Amino acid sequence: MYLLGFDIGSSSVKASIINGDSGECLASAFYPKQEMKITAVQSGWAEQEPEQWWANLKMAVAEVMQQSEVNPSDIDSIGISYQMHGLVVVDKNQNVLRPSIIWCDSRATGIGEKALKEIGEEKCLENLLNSPGNFTASKLKWVKDNEPELYAKIDKIMLPGDYIAMKLSGEIKTTAGNLSEGILWNFKENTVAKMLIDYYGFEESFIPEIVPTFSLQSVVSEAAAKEMGLAPGIKISYRAGDQPNNALSLNVLNPGEIATTAGTSGVVYGVSDEVKYDPKSRVNTFAHVNHTAEANRLGVLLCINGTGILNSWLNKQVGGGAISYEGMNEAASKVAIGSDGISILPFGNGAERVLENKNLGSIMSGISFNIHTNAHLFRAAQEGIVFSFKYGMDIMKTIGIDAKVIRAGKANMFLSPIFRETLAGISGATIELYNTDGSVGAARGAGIGSGYYKSPAEAFSNLTKLETIEPNLNKKAEYEEAYGNWKSMLEKFI
């Protein structure tokens, strides 16, 4: 039997199919081949059309099925990973009412800050583990305040993964983990966050039926099977936000384990069994995929919005698109640690929670027209991204998440030797790179949820470590000096 995994990102939509017994990935595909469009009607806004996710997913699935030559009737189950914190709203006929307000959209920041103050910081943090901030619930409040006629047509609200499951099955459901990512879950009461729903004046009926993260949530409908080229009745048995799912992909399930990603945005994600939170909500606490009322498994998440998107911007705007990312890495490797005095703040992709929701924009400092080249900018960008990780990881330490070993898939920014060596050097952590990604992890999650695998240990028995990067102690002083310069620059603006 085979397992199918989807990863609904903001840059692309990816599908992978794995052999359930061997765990081998038989085929993967992503669409679009260029980065998916993000619409910004105003500065700080970010929207995508959910129908575009579905259209790209259909193309990815078609390519995967063609490459793998798997009979659709031999697919046991489907797992879904998705970009966190987005808002999808539909009417009673399951028609999408407006573009999705996605994770990096900053428009609701003030709404969340006002809610935190009026509900009470202590009450919010004790129950929600976070400020309402710029998350899904606050985005819905923005719709309520600014688009009242549209709001009146809403039947259900969803996160992006719930929307994909709806398109596959015709049923609208969600999970406690999904709701926690939208700040719609009360951890103290282990139920929907009625205190925030009442404060914002939402209808409780907007919340879909809640199902376990690993479970027979629904099945592929006749209509979707025909549209996707799949067989009706395939089980949909797992869904999770991309960062909890990335941790699952790396078999990060137990307290003290750490996962990280560095795609468009960058995340460090640590698992804890203690209910702890940052009083300033600079890092956030959500339900991990294996969290239950009986056994706490909480994911403490540091998110840096401006990560791979900075590298991509430099590639297009400075390199003119004429240089590959490998070429950028090669050029940057010729530059010394510290980039000969250039420091770059990578915060150009919306308000940053680690900076208490400030929207600084990206800032470049120390450029000399006489000595600096593109190569210096390429290195300074990667160092700036890593240093923003370091800044956030120091906050994570205050609530008990101390990275000694960090696991990541060998993809995106982790393909860069400079990036991974700088992260190891400044954090002091060992970096372990594995042969996995979000869509493969979602496929394994599907096998756990459907019962194909008896345990997570069985699901990840063939996870292969590709590379280990140890901190270079001989260069520790150089990394620390460069970080000190970067941090001094940051502190001038916050």
Description of the molecule:
Helix 13 (374-397) runs parallel beside helix 14 and helix 13 (374-397) crosses helix 17. The protein is α+β, with helices and mostly antiparallel strands and 494 residues long. Helices cover 36% and strands 21% of the residues. The strands form eight sheets. It has a six-stranded mixed sheet. A four-stranded antiparallel sheet has the order 15-16-18-17. The protein has helices spanning 50-68, 109-119, 121-128, 136-146, 148-151, 160-169, 176-181, 194-200, 222-228, 242-249, 308-318, 325-332, 374-397, 417-427, 438-450, 456-459, 476-491; strands at residues 2-8, 13-19, 25-31, 47-48, 75-82, 88-90, 100-101, 156-158, 173-174, 185-186, 191-192, 209-210, 214-219, 235-241, 258-262, 266-272, 284-287, 298-304, 343-345, 363-365, 405-409, 430-434, 465-469. The protein starts with a strand and ends with a helix.
Record the SSE blueprint.
Layout (H helix, E strand, L loop, with lengths): L1 E7 L4 E7 L5 E7 L15 E2 L1 H19 L6 E8 L5 E3 L9 E2 L7 H11 L1 H8 L7 H11 L1 H4 L4 E3 L1 H10 L3 E2 L1 H6 L3 E2 L4 E2 L1 H7 L8 E2 L3 E6 L2 H7 L6 E7 H8 L8 E5 L3 E7 L11 E4 L10 E7 L3 H11 L6 H8 L10 E3 L17 E3 L8 H24 L7 E5 L7 H11 L2 E5 L3 H13 L5 H4 L5 E5 L6 H16 L3
Parallel strand pairs: 1-5, 5-14, 9-12, 21-22
Antiparallel strand pairs: 1-2, 2-3, 4-7, 6-8, 10-11, 13-14, 15-16, 16-18, 17-18, 19-20, 22-23
Helix pairs in contact: 10-15, 11-13, 12-13, 13-14, 13-17
Which radius of gyration do the C-alpha atoms yield? 22 Å
Major beta sheet, strand line-up = 3-2-1-5-14-13
Specify the structural class: alpha+beta
Give the count of helical stretches.
Answer: 17
- Helix fraction, binned, reads 25-40%
How much is the average pLDDT? 96
Low-pLDDT sequence parts: none
| Oligomeric state of shown chains | single chain
Instruction: Give the strand content.
Output: 15-25%
Number of strands: 23
Question: What is the 3D form?
Answer: globular
Main sheet makeup: 6 strands, mixed
Distance between the termini: 53 Å
